[in-house]
Automatic annotation (TrEMBL):
Hydrolyzes 3-hydroxyisobutyryl-CoA (HIBYL-CoA), a saline catabolite. Has high activity toward isobutyryl-CoA. Could be an isobutyryl-CoA dehydrogenase that functions in valine catabolism. Also hydrolyzes 3-hydroxypropanoyl-CoA. Belongs to the enoyl-CoA hydratase/isomerase family. This is 3-hydroxyisobutyryl-CoA hydrolase. The lineage of its organism: Eukaryota, Metazoa, Chordata, Craniata, Vertebrata. It catalyses: 3-hydroxy-2-methylpropanoyl-CoA + H2O = 3-hydroxy-2-methylpropanoate + CoA + H(+). It holds the Pfam family ECH_2. Pathway: Amino-acid degradation; L-valine degradation.
Length: 382
């Protein structure tokens, strides 16, 4: 009898936990977590969770997607602007903690979040009207997905870009497999594997942003954008160009990786993640050894997944990449490293994840192959 009571109590607790996760992700306050305004002929989206660095949750996705569709068909909306509230962030990423809670509890949120996020990424990537992301602050992970596939991305001196997913047992998703291999040389692979952070003007120099405008000019730029009458993409580009010309801050500073570009291309030209680490150790320079040290901290499974994701993505369309990435994220949801990475980095913050397998050699080719396999009926449909 006591066993039945205990089991029922556990089940009740589990149901309560699930309900609280769902309330957290689908709370009606989403109306205030993302704001929509029509200003002149522009639709303006404001990510409005400044205390959470505007982290993207499922409710926000479920508000943004239909609004973008509506504005795309609306003859009185000529362009879309997306920005983040507060001083610190455009969007620091997806609400990963809620996703891990759901994954552990077997809740469908672990599928829904990624599926609907990737559909939104594709909508931005195929948007017919000018789409301008003002990435004035931290822009990582899910925040990159909301901006990089759009026609225009405006960085400022406050922009901090990174795809740090290999450090939490994931991979640079949200279409990372599409835009990263299209950066110059091996830079995209380097950023994908190491999670290296780019700041300010460098975000534009590598091509993640299309323009650089000083932060104190952003309000004025936004006003000029909403005043444009039926602008074409070239009208918007012209306005952004004029603001960039007026923004001389840090122009004389060299690109942070200028001295290492040739080394990155050489050392990251390899047939496997293992070969890259071998190259770095053999090279022996301070820069190479620092990168080897960084890679040694990352999930070995994530490094192998990411290496192949970037390799495959170079030959794919954005849509094909998102289908591939949905397969990968669902494999990560079934594995160990994602939960362990989130625990170590975001929850306990001990920064000491115990990866399984703990070495690259322990990650079999078969295990990686399975992550890329079709999900059949459950594959992402765009």
């Amino acid at each position: 009898m006591s066993f039945i009571i205990l089991t029922s109590a556990r089940r009740f607790r589990s149901v309560c936990r699930l309900q609280s996760i769902q309330r957290h992700m689908m709370s009606s306050k989403a109306g205030s977590e993302v704001l929509f305004e029509k200003v002149g002929n522009a639709g303006v989206i404001t990510l409005n969770r400044p205390k959470a660095l505007n982290a993207l949750n499922l409710t926000m996705i479920r508000h943004i997607y239909p609004q973008l569709k509506k504005w795309d068909k609306d003859s009185e909306t000529d362009l879309v602007i997306i920005k983040g509230a507060g001083e610190k962030a455009f969007c620091a990423g997806g609400d990963i903690r809620a996703v891990t809670e759901a994954g552990k509890a077997g809740d469908s949120l672990a599928q829904d979040f990624f599926r609907e996020e990737y559909i939104l990424n594709n909508t931005i990537g195929t948007y017919q009207k000018p789409y301008v992301a003002l990435i004035d602050g931290i822009t990582m992970g899910g925040g990159v997905g909301l901006s990089v596939h759009g026609r225009f991305r405006v960085a400022t001196e406050k922009t901090l870009f990174a795809m740090p997913e290999t450090g939490i047992g994931l991979f640079p998703d949200v279409g990372g497999g599409y835009f990263l291999p299209r950066l110059q040389g091996k830079l995209g692979l380097f950023l994908a594997l190491t999670g290296f952070r780019l700041k300010g003007r460098d975000v534009q120099r590598v091509g993640v942003a299309t323009h650089f405008v000083q932060s104190d000019k952003i309000a004025s730029l936004e006003k000029d954008l909403v005043d444009l009458k039926s602008p074409s993409n070239s009208d918007v580009a012209q306005l952004l160009d004029s603001y960039q010309e007026k923004s001389s801050l840090d122009a004389e500073k060299p690109f942070v990786l200028q001295e290492q570009t040739e080394a990155i291309d050489r050392l990251f030209s390899a047939e496997s993640a293992e070969e890259i680490i071998e190259n770095l150790k053999k090279d022996g320079s301070a820069f190479a050894l620092k990168q080897a040290e960084t890679l040694a901290k990352m999930s070995p499974t994530s490094l192998k997944l990411t290496f192949r994701q970037i390799q495959e993505g170079a030959r794919m369309s954005l849509q094909e990449v998102l289908v591939m990435e949905y397969r990968l994220c669902q494999a990560c949801m079934k594995g160990h490293d994602f939960y362990e990475g989130v625990r170590a980095v975001l929850i306990d913050k001990d920064q000491s994840p115990k990866w399984k397998p703990s070495t690259l050699s322990g990650v079999s080719e078969q295990a990686i192959e399975e992550c890329f396999s079709s999900l059949g009926e459950r594959d992402l449909k765009l």
